[in-house]
Design brief:
It is built from 17 helices and 27 strands. It is of the alpha/beta class and about 700 residues long.
Length: about 700
């Protein structure tokens, strides 16, 4: 018989578990609970507890917290809660079910080995199929590590999926699909030159949270936008999750990235949870916090409001929930050394308890004003699934925003659309129309052309239509307006002219993105033309369709080289990483404006309002003593154009980039550039050309 542990009343703080030399303190907050039991399990796959500890109101209850101290209990013990209370009513919306084994919302490590989502959707006991939490010792040697402080204007973000980055056999890592596997790829990230990785959700999520017909195809939730345990790293990315090594393995990744000078941004999902709507599973919040955690109908609290498309919406501006979320973020910064957060469907966080949009949402401002998060990067996906679009108007001041306006107009421009030059110019100069009126900065805009959600860069120029049949939803899912351009053939082709145009379009995208003011974000795999065969919603494809095939990094080494050198170009030009907006005024100490717009001839008035114009050119002045000036030409027309370069006293133009040329002369390393002869240059159709003016 397994040892039975003695216990005493314990402390309400901290919530979750706390290990010391005498044992473990457990505390859980449940405002309306009437009966609470702690269940202890020998392993993560034990179906029955070895001890059940009943908590008494007069001994183990303080305010909203239920607590108990279990003496001599070792770290590594697995546990769960059972909680009872008032039954579901229209007035209260409470959903207590004493038979359900519940996860601790503050758990630092969880196991989903036995998890059966459908069982949790049904009434009655599911303890043999429920997830469990583990008691975790917080000891760890950080070796002096702290969160990095990299100024946002110098940031180059690289969005990646921890599992898909190394899960393909071609990755060649020892532990594919894990935090440890990603550590092995850090030298590649260093060679690429990015400053931050933005990790798709790594908080523990429900891999079984997909539509029934999708699950029947053997597919599962791959992206991870289905969080249930906000304090626990995802066990599926750990090498030995059965040993509750989640925290150590994740910390090893963060520490290794920091040693390489790379910051870590987490994609977090505080707009909904995997418990879905009224017919979804009971995992933790539904059975613990009652009706406070989710937005519900004021007339019938059994009905969930859904502004996320996932069945529920977190009631983020309820005081208890606001405290939970901010405490969670502070935990990841304090204990895991995270450098930033990207908030999925962040506009949902601006909704009040009745779903209305708040002008000054307490949660959003609470995150911004938290002293512990004051040096942490905050990035909002400034829209939600119910039509709220706040790009350029997200509450707060220091938040960055995924700039969907940038993405859309640059896609249209590269695809050959005319009459949009004015907006293109505004976007590549930092979107002053969106941010300057609020006294925000170019760094408020996170510029991107592709991300995990939608076509990869290769597919953006290979498909006019989405091809999502493999998802099991009859091609109904995914975006129907991708603003893509297949270069004349739908899908794969052996036509050399089409292949060349696709590569040139990809280089155009990278060139434009990396010379734009604001913070650039790259999608992992785009730098070597990773393809998802036209699937623009691969959320359920945990298979080679979504995994990065590293063979492509050799097959398309010319594109990878182009991206590496474009990153280097950006880094050597502070004028591309300026913190403030351009104003057209003379640079201090020089007779040249910070930016000068041109037509095909120097100082010629650009054709801003010409309906068929697809050409733009401008000179960007250096802002540091040893920096070269830039002259940038973007010709997305079908015509070859001859342009004249402007004259700058004491400087001579050198060709740096010409996407119309083939490798290796499509981009020239700075040390190998030679002065141009003359001031006339022929610009190919659908190309971007960059010149650098070095001192004579």
């Amino acid at each position: 018989m397994t040892k039975q542990y003695t216990f005493r009343s314990g402390s309400p703080y901290p919530l979750g578990t706390k290990v010391n030399d005498e044992g473990v303190n457990f505390s859980i907050s449940s405002r309306h609970a009437t009966v609470v039991e702690l269940l202890l399990f020998k392993t993560a796959i034990s179906k029955k507890p070895f001890q059940i500890i009943p908590l008494e109101r007069n001994k183990n209850h303080t305010f909203f917290s239920w607590h108990v101290f279990v003496e001599n209990l070792p770290a590594g013990t697995w546990y769960g809660w059972r909680i009872d209370g008032p039954s579901l009513t229209k007035e209260s919306g409470l959903r207590f079910d004493r038979q359900k084994l519940l996860l601790d919302p503050w758990a630092r490590a969880i196991s989903h080995k036995l998890w059966n989502r459908s069982k949790a959707c049904q009434a009655g006991d599911n303890s043999a199929f429920a997830m469990k939490a583990a008691v975790v010792d917080n000891d760890y040697d950080w070796e002096g590590d702290t969160p990095l402080v990299i100024r946002s204007e110098k940031a180059i973000i690289y969005e990646l999926h921890v599992g898909g980055f190394t899960r393909h056999p071609s990755s060649g890592v020892k532990n594919p699909g894990t935090f440890a596997g990603l550590i092995e790829k850090i030298p590649y990230l260093q060679q690429l030159g990015i400053t931050h990785v933005e990790l798709l959700p790594v908080m523990a999520f429900d891999e079984q949270d997909v539509p029934v017909h999708t699950a029947e195809l053997g597919l599962k939730n791959y992206w991870g936008y289905s969080t249930h345990s906000f304090f626990s790293p995802h066990p599926g990315y750990c090498v030995t999750p059965e040993k509750a090594t989640h925290i150590r393995e994740f910390r090893d990744l963060v520490k290794a990235l920091h040693k390489a000078g790379i910051g870590v941004i987490m994609d977090v999902v505080f707009n909904h949870t995997s418990e879905a709507g009224a017919d979804g599973p009971v995992i933790n919040f539904k059975g613990i916090t009652g009706n406070s955690f989710y937005l519900t109908d004021k007339h019938d609290k059994r009905i969930f409001h859904d502004y996320t498309g996932c069945g529920n919406t977190i009631n983020g501006n309820h005081p208890l929930v606001t405290n939970f979320i901010i405490s969670c973020l502070e935990y990841w910064v304090r204990e895991m050394h995270i450098d930033g957060f990207r908030f999925d469907l962040a506009s949902a966080l601006a909704r009040g308890e009745d779903g209305t949009v708040l002008q000054d949402p307490p949660l959003v401002w609470g995150i911004e004003l938290s002293e512990k998060l004051s040096r942490t990067k905050l990035i909002a996906e400034a829209w939600d699934a119910a039509g709220l679009y706040q790009v350029g108007n997200f509450p707060g001041y220091r938040w960055g925003e995924w700039n969907g306006r940038y993405r859309d107009v640059i896609r249209r421009f590269i695809g050959g659309e005319s009459g949009i030059i004015s907006e293109v110019a505004t976007r590549i100069c930092g979107s002053s129309d969106l941010y300057q009126p609020q006294h925000r900065l170019p760094i408020s805009g996170i510029n991107f052309i592709t991300c995990h959600d939608g076509f990869t860069l290769n597919d953006l120029f290979s498909y006019n239509q989405k091809h999502n049949i493999a998802n099991g939803e009859d091609n109904r899912d995914g975006c129907n307006n991708s603003l893509s351009f297949n270069c004349g053939v739908e899908g794969e082709t052996k036509d050399p002219a089409v292949i060349a145009l696709r590569k040139q379009s990809a280089k155009n995208a990278y060139a434009i993105l990396l010379v734009s003011l604001g913070v650039p974000m790259l999608l992992a795999g785009d730098e070597f033309l990773n393809s998802q065969q036209g699937n623009n919603n691969s959320y359920c494809q945990d298979n080679p369709l979504s995994w990065l095939d590293w063979q492509a990094s050799q097959d398309n080494a010319d594109i990878l080289r182009f991206v590496q050198l474009m990153v280097q170009l950006r880094k050597r030009h502070p004028s591309l990483m300026r913190r403030n907006f351009l104003n057209g005024e003379a640079v201090k100490g020089r007779e040249i404006a910070d930016i000068t717009w041109h037509g095909e001839q120097p100082d010629q008035t650009p054709n801003w309002d010409t309906a068929d114009n697809r050409f733009i050119a401008y000179t960007l002045a250096a802002i540091e003593e040893n920096e070269a000036d830039l002259h940038i030409v973007m010709n997305m027309s079908d015509d070859i154009l001859k342009i004249q370069l402007p004259k700058i006293n004491g400087r001579q133009w050198h060709l740096s980039v010409d996407t119309g040329k083939s490798a290796p002369v499509d981009i020239i390393e700075f040390s190998q550039q030679i002065p141009l002869v003359g001031d006339i240059y022929q610009v190919s159709q659908r190309s971007v050309v960059v010149f650098e003016a070095q001192a004579k």
